[in-house]
Backbone:
């Protein structure tokens, strides 16, 4: 009996398979009660693009590597209803003159149709995968560096506006500019120059869009973020980090001796080539920073099959899933989020230390601040942070999830600013302001009744001096809340800030 046969209905299961130029991926999800649960992920390095010769013919060896992988995938796919399966192939099989040889054999193995999608369709699906899993605000620039192509897209919410698929990838550039595994300054410069030339034909179009955030999907951006996190840097990807990594690669001299703390061995061989492409994109498109999305092509394919998810609020969906899963009081979650967002908006009108992430992460942390209560009241803020470090949170980028985790950890008791030491100064100040808002909000709603929340406004005189202004005499109307706020004033004073009750 197959792995999923015991389910009450197989129709709950969906599968997406992405036959990429570097890796083949398969993800299987279960859809139940409005929740999408990943139940299986398989990834295999095939490096199909490395088997293309100068005449764009795939070698027999590379075809066999790919077919071996599909034989592994076939076992699980046989348990999924055929109508719930979608299998797509990308750049290498678009280019290969003998692609049909692979497709025919692959379809026989999988007993399912394989679709070779165009570069534009790939870009569209990547954008949707990013949008479904990392809800964006305003215009977003989305970048996915694949093995043989790089997709660059500008869109707004779920609507891609401009799609491009560029003829550059980490596997093809590895073969071309880092021959035999040699890593040199000259190889980097040639790769960056060639990538810049590819980008040039779209540069003016992309620069005319006023995007508010740049999101990287999969591969090289994830590898860079993994390195930053391992080295204790809680930040978005920025060009200076990329130049530092380039010098580390050159100093290594060869892929076999390339050892960077946080770089996983599976990406070692193609990291310099992907890094060169990423540097060219940052320089040509004037990217200030890039965050990592929660999904890409596979997720775009999957959510495209789930029509009821196409217009849903992904962030709210992600929060609702955790509220239900960890038995948070939904009414209290909503009331705390409401007051936190209200105070946050007031604060952001009066200080420079706000960006479009501030309200998003403050509201989410407020909604999830009681996540750890089901473990126990004592240190439940620490329990909640631990849980957030190990669960998915749909609709939020990797960096946003990290910030939400740290805010939940700091929403009560003594203030330990060492938790934020690995953030850059401007981001750290933004998080401090968000944390102050969250701590105040949790106290204001502690009677757990909507009608018992005092009316309050926030006056920010400078980044350190905040005034809470109440319409009622708090000593009379809310003595317990006032007592807790007075204690919070003392805790914030010890941390170096003034919180004054007016």
Residues:
């Amino acid at each position: 009996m197959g792995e999923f046969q015991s389910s009450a209905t197989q129709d709950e299961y969906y599968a997406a398979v992405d036959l990429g130029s570097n890796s083949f991926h398969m993800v299987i999800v279960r859809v139940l009660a409005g929740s999408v649960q990943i139940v299986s992920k398989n990834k295999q390095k095939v490096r199909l693009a490395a088997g293309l010769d100068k005449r764009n013919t795939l070698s027999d060896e590379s075809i066999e590597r790919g077919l071996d992988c599909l034989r592994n995938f076939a076992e699980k796919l046989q348990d999924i209803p055929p109508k719930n399966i979608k299998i797509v192939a990308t750049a290498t099989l678009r280019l290969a003159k003998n692609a049909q040889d692979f497709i025919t054999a692959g379809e026989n193995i999988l007993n399912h149709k394989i679709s070779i999608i165009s570069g534009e369709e790939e870009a569209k699906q990547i954008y949707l995968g990013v949008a479904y899993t990392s809800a964006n605000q305003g215009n977003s620039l989305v970048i996915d560096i694949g093995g043989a192509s790089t997709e660059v897209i500008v869109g707004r919410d779920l609507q891609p506006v401009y799609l491009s698929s560029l003829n550059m990838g980490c596997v093809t550039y590895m073969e071309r500019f880092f021959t035999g595994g040699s890593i040199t300054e000259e190889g980097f410069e040639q790769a960056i120059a060639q990538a810049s030339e590819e980008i040039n034909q779209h540069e003016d179009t992309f620069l005319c869009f006023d995007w508010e955030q740049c999101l990287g999907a999969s591969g090289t951006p994830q590898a860079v973020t993994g390195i930053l996190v391992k080295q204790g840097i809680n930040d978005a990807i920025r060009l200076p980090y990329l130049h530092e990594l380039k010098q580390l690669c050159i100093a290594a001299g060869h892929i076999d001796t390339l050892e960077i703390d946080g770089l996983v061995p599976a990406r070692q061989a193609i990291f310099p080539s992907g890094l060169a492409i990423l540097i060219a994109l940052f320089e040509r498109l004037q990217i200030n920073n890039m965050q990592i999305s929660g999904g890409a092509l596979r997720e775009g394919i999957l959510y495209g099959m789930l029509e009821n998810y196409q217009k849903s609020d992904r962030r709210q969906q992600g929060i609702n899933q955790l509220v239900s899963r960890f038995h948070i009081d939904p009414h209290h979650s909503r009331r705390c989020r409401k007051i936190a967002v209200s105070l946050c908006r007031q604060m952001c009108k009066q200080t420079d230390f706000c960006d479009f992430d501030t309200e998003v992460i403050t509201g989410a942390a407020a909604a999830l601040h009681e996540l750890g209560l089901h473990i126990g009241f004592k240190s439940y803020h620490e329990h909640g942070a631990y849980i957030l470090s190990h669960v998915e949170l749909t609709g939020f980028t990797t960096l946003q999830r990290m910030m939400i985790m740290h805010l939940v950890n700091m929403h009560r008791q003594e203030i330990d600013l060492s938790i934020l030491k690995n953030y850059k100064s401007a981001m750290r100040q933004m998080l401090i302001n968000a944390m102050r808002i969250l701590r105040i909000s949790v106290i204001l709603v502690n009677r757990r009744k909507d009608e018992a929340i005092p009316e309050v406004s926030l006056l920010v005189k400078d980044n350190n001096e905040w005034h809470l202004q109440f319409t009622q005499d708090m000593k009379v109307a809310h003595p317990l809340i006032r007592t807790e706020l007075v204690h919070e004033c003392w805790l914030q004073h010890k941390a170096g800030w003034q919180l004054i009750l007016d």
